[in-house]
From TrEMBL, chains A, B:
Transmembrane segments: none annotated. It is found in: Cytoplasm. Residues 151-454 form the Aminoacyl-transfer RNA synthetases class-II family profile domain. Homodimer. InterPro entries: Aa-tRNA-synt_II, aa-tRNA-synth_II, aa-tRNA-synth_II/BPL/LPL, Asp-tRNA_synthase_2, Asp/Asn-tRNA-synth_IIb, NA-bd_OB-fold, NA-bd_OB_tRNA. GO terms for cellular component: aminoacyl-tRNA synthetase multienzyme complex; cytosol. GO terms for biological process: aspartyl-tRNA aminoacylation. The keyword Ligase applies. This is Aspartate--tRNA ligase.
Length: 454, 454
């Protein structure tokens, strides 16, 4: 390995020889002195090269998109003058602490500079380019410090979730993408030719396969997996392909047990994010990470409608569900009333839930919930109907043909415990955590109806 | 939550009241006493019900595939007689330690028994059914203790890998499945209609997107993701959809740096598996988990050919690669010579490597490797060519059209550091770790050219 030092670790070092590697953020090519700001994945540092004092130094150019006549020059100054923004370089020099340097109070005086790869002279985007343009060049866009931070936060969040699950006896499963039968609604499914077996569908959730784990006696499982939706949705909250964070567990009494698990999980995840990145998030996003207190507020859907209406908003949907503005309204109410960023909305009618949700005999409503985070739905969870006769009746009531569900219904024929779980959109959590306006900002490579590249 | 106690935790408890939940493995319905072996995800326990001594006890049947005339009976004995194998039940009773009980020296005297879900009277498979038949009913097959153990091992292994990576500054990325352009060989790609954008392809590896992370300055990344191969391969080592474990890192000097990382990663993973599951693996698989010593042996491919030939095996392939028997032979040599389960084969000619591998100027061979584990290839790794002009020349030399590669080549136009990485088949590692004969045994839900269900 190149014995480079991460930029973030320079400040703590004593003055002396160092090697740093990264890309060129800015060049100030002055007559007497040259300045380069070099960035790596951990931060920015100022490099300095006093022209007059520059000795003949070896400079090796290993690549180039820029026409280069000579591949080796002995002049550091000349090479610095040739640097295009975004070029990747390795620099060896003398680290010096100097309070006058605005950028972190340190600079590196260049002894030698190796250009590993020249960038094309014109970078096609800047930090303030339009989102869609930035996504065209996501590989440049991700060089922004805040974007780099987003994916370090994602890594921390997921790892904290996995650790919590594993500490609590959950098994991680890799549910398949290819399915022989459509899972819920044919209209939202991608399909393709699958050898001699006819059509395969791409899973729009790991639902079937994590329920299968319950019949298989695995007890408690989680899955973090890509899922696919073929409906042409263009909102800031939808993607054609996204990462779904799912859990399913046996021997629950109701959806209350699922909510109790999910809120512990979220507390563990946000605690880890706050501890590891709280300061960086404050600096880059101007946001204080709030670790929620458990239990989160719980409000039955019917009551939520009343509350929202009292606030002067009439939900225009006819089906009884909340719309996005309704979700923002109930979240605002909860924030004002309980000071909480999260709220579980519970007890949805079966008419707006999939057939496999369990109906509570007392209320006639499903044992299910949505979880709203800072005004946006991030999760649907439920106890599932595990009694085959009831499940079939509910499917028929929904107008589904049992024939198409055989592969799923098989899971219930040979014994299955009571169970439930939830699915959570990873990007939605990140979007709400960081106060972003679109999941496109917090998805590594967004895929939508009009975006399939890069 | 049901306040059930996991079976594995019973032995450590004092005699007294307990609740256990699981499924029925066996019933011995004798005249004077009834025995049930109940299994949950953690183990087996014997339940006992002395008929004569049985008081009238509440029994609730909540579901059933079996025709049931009466939904409530007051007779535990009658319900036990009705139990079908695989039915899920919750039992409350008295735990008693008794050395005479072969199954763990404990039993539970049943006070009440609730049937949560009756299994169909005929289970379609047994532990010794043919593999393909077992896979048809994977949700029953996974109830086997050794199968349950496989996925707990997988969970531990992956978590140890992720933890090692994260402790070493790696970022986890979710690379997309949908691609606008074919990545390597069109013949192996699934394709489908993608809105108005024409054809989308399913990624056969996260290769492009983890390299993109290097241009994006993320430094070190890993991805654990499903990938898709449309070639009709029927060997015990291939699947149509499988989980790929990938890493990619910047600022390497050569593939040596990638190997050094991978061997540390594998040591961390296997150490965790040995510590957490060593005893269970010995019991269920008759295998001692060997934590390898680093560095692993490294043998250039040409030398490997000589060694294999000296052992009396002539590789029949014309292209210079080893075949599976050749891999077994070199592994046997390494085991005999160095006592090691792993061997890196290095320095493959470009003719049998993808165009994006870097060629060493001295040797004319690629800076790449395969990793063989107990005789099976589990990984290909390499330093990538990051110099655009060289990369394009290599693509052309391979007969590829640059036009189809534009989206990939774009990553190299705006600066990119030297980098490399590897891809590793999760199921292959598990297969070799546990001495299994097929990845189908260690894949949660196998997908192959003739298998798309369940």
């Amino acid at each position: 390995m190149t014995s480079r030092i991460l930029v973030k670790n320079l400040a703590a070092r004593e003055d002396g020889p160092v090697t740093v590697s990264g890309w060129v953020e800015t060049v100030r090519d002055q007559k007497k002195v040259q300045f380069v700001v070099l960035r790596d994945e951990s931060g920015d540092v100022q490099l300095v090269h006093p022209r007059a004092a520059a000795p003949a130094t070896e400079v090796v150019e290993t690549s180039g998109d820029v026409p280069v006549g000579v591949s080796v020059t002995d002049d550091v100054a000349e090479t610095i003058s040739s640097l295009t923004l975004g070029s990747f370089v390795t620099v060896t020099g003398e680290l010096k602490h100097d309070e006058r340097v605005k950028l972190g109070g340190i600079e590196v005086k260049i002894d030698s500079l190796t250009v590993e790869s020249y960038a094309h002279p014109e970078l096609p985007i800047a930090a303030d380019s339009a989102l869609d343009k930035r996504l065209d060049y996501r590989f440049i866009d991700l060089r922004q410090k805040r974007n780099n931070l987003i994916f370090r936060i994602q890594t921390t969040l997921e790892h904290a979730w996995r650790t919590w699950w594993i500490d609590n006896g959950y098994i991680e499963v890799h549910t398949p993408t290819f399915m022989a039968t459509p899972s819920e609604s044919r209209a939202e499914l991608f399909q393709l030719d699958y050898f001699d077996l006819g059509t395969a569908y791409l899973a729009q959730s790991p639902q079937h396969f994590k329920q299968m784990a319950q019949a298989a006696g695995l007890g408690k499982v989680f899955a973090i997996t890509p899922v696919f939706r073929a409906d042409p949705s263009f909102t800031s909250r939808h993607a054609t392909e996204y990462t779904s964070v799912d859990a399913e567990l046996s021997w629950i009494d109701s959806h209350d047990d699922v909510m109790a698990m999910q809120e512990q999980l979220l507390v563990a995840g946000l605690t880890a994010v706050e501890e590891k990145h709280g300061d960086e998030i404050r600096e880059a996003f101007g946001i204080e990470v709030e670790v929620p207190a458990a239990p989160f507020p719980r409000i039955p859907l019917a009551e939520a409608h009343e509350i929202v209406e009292k606030r002067g908003y009439k939900v225009p949907r006819e089906d009884g569900d909340l719309d996005p503005e309704g979700e923002r309204q109930i979240a605002a109410y909860v924030k004002e009333t309980y000071g909480h960023d999260f709220v579980f909305l519970t007890d949805y009618p079966l008419s707006i839930r999939p057939f496999y949700h369990m109906v509570d005999e007392q209320t006639g409503l499903t044992k299910s919930y949505d979880l709203i985070y800072n005004g946006v739905e991030i999760t649907t969870g439920a106890q599932r109907e595990h009694r085959l006769d009831v499940l079939e009746a509910q499917a028929v009531k929904k107008g589904l043909e049992l024939e198409g569900l055989e592969s799923y219904l098989d899971f219930f024929r040979y014994g299955i415990p009571p169970h439930g779980g939830f699915g959570m959109g990873l990007a939605r959590v990140l979007m709400q955590l960081l106060g972003e306006q679109s999941i496109r900002e917090v998805t590594y490579l967004f895929r939508g109806p009009t975006r399939l590249k890069p």
